[in-house]
């Protein structure tokens, strides 16, 4: 995605016959989507603008060559699932979330284990926690796997639910304070698939490519959307500063009276 700016569904819809390992060209024509009642479907891109031929950087071509060297079937997706079929974009998004979510240091892992033990000792399931605290379905799971920082407020709500009191409660709250300290594991928590696309657009923008060229790369029909969403806002009139600088810094002898 970073090498091309394509969407997750488009990358998963790429077949080997659409990859030219000699020229480094790939043909984007389809995407993978999930349709209720039908499952995964390989369908055309959102618009004709989405159908495009892209040239990948050398480092991406090296990756494709390495994958091809492992043995491929021509009708197979370039990035298949473990059984050779199409990957589900939702699953890939989930895997990306897991990969970028912080796996905490020892203190955070110890806290997650203690909270999981406290829940089980209380005889409460994760779905029950979700329902009674009004949390999202994945929140308690992420907490118990040390992938989400626990605030004192969250911890207090959990400990109240688990009916923890006295020294055991105080010990867990101290652990919460220690685990909330910044960790190197948080470095990539900001990373999303959208960031890959935006980064590609920013690199092309910085290289001086036009909005039309970047829109073609990303598969946008309207360059205006590319400018509004993906391209950085640069100074609209950089020469204005120089003109104002000259005018306002000029000495009395340099000024003319109109």
Automatic annotation (TrEMBL):
<feature type="domain" description="Tyr recombinase">
    <location>
        <begin position="1"/>
        <end position="244"/>
    </location>
</feature>
<dbReference type="InterPro" id="IPR013762">
    <property type="entry name" value="Integrase-like_cat_sf"/>
</dbReference>
<dbReference type="InterPro" id="IPR001387">
    <property type="entry name" value="Cro/C1-type_HTH"/>
</dbReference>
<dbReference type="GO" id="GO:0006310">
    <property type="term" value="P:DNA recombination"/>
</dbReference>
<dbReference type="GO" id="GO:0015074">
    <property type="term" value="P:DNA integration"/>
</dbReference>
<keyword id="KW-0233">DNA recombination</keyword>
<dbReference type="InterPro" id="IPR011010">
    <property type="entry name" value="DNA_brk_join_enz"/>
</dbReference>
<feature type="domain" description="HTH cro/C1-type">
    <location>
        <begin position="115"/>
        <end position="169"/>
    </location>
</feature>
<dbReference type="GO" id="GO:0003677">
    <property type="term" value="F:DNA binding"/>
</dbReference>
<dbReference type="InterPro" id="IPR010982">
    <property type="entry name" value="Lambda_DNA-bd_dom_sf"/>
</dbReference>
<dbReference type="InterPro" id="IPR002104">
    <property type="entry name" value="Integrase_catalytic"/>
</dbReference>
<protein>
    <submittedName>
        <fullName>Phage integrase family protein</fullName>
    </submittedName>
</protein>
<dbReference type="Pfam" id="PF13560">
    <property type="entry name" value="HTH_31"/>
</dbReference>
């Amino acid at each position: 995605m970073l090498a091309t700016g394509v969407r997750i569904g488009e990358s998963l819809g790429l077949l080997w016959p659409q990859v030219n390992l000699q020229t480094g060209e790939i043909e984007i024509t389809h995407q993978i989507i999930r349709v209720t009642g039908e499952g995964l479907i390989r369908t055309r891109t959102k618009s004709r603008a989405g159908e495009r031929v892209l040239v990948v950087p050398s480092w991406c071509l090296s990756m494709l060559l390495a994958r091809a060297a492992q043995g491929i079937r021509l009708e197979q997706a370039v990035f298949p699932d473990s059984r050779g079929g199409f990957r589900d974009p939702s699953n890939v998004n989930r895997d990306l979330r897991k990969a970028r979510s912080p796996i905490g240091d020892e203190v955070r892992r110890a806290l997650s284990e203690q909270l999981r033990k406290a829940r089980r000792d209380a005889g409460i399931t994760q779905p029950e926690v979700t329902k009674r605290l009004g949390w999202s379905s994945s929140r308690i799971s992420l907490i118990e796997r040390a992938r989400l920082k626990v605030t004192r407020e969250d911890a207090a709500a959990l400990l109240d639910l688990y009916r923890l009191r006295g020294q055991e409660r105080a010990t867990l709250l101290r652990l919460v304070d220690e685990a909330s300290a910044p960790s190197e594991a948080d470095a990539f928590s900001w990373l999303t698939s959208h960031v890959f696309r935006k980064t590609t657009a920013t690199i092309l923008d910085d290289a001086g490519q036009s909005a039309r060229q970047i829109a073609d790369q990303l598969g946008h029909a309207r360059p205006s959307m590319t400018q509004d969403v993906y391209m950085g806002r640069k100074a609209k009139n950089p020469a204005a500063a120089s003109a104002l600088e000259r005018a306002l810094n000029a000495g009395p002898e340099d000024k003319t009276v109109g």
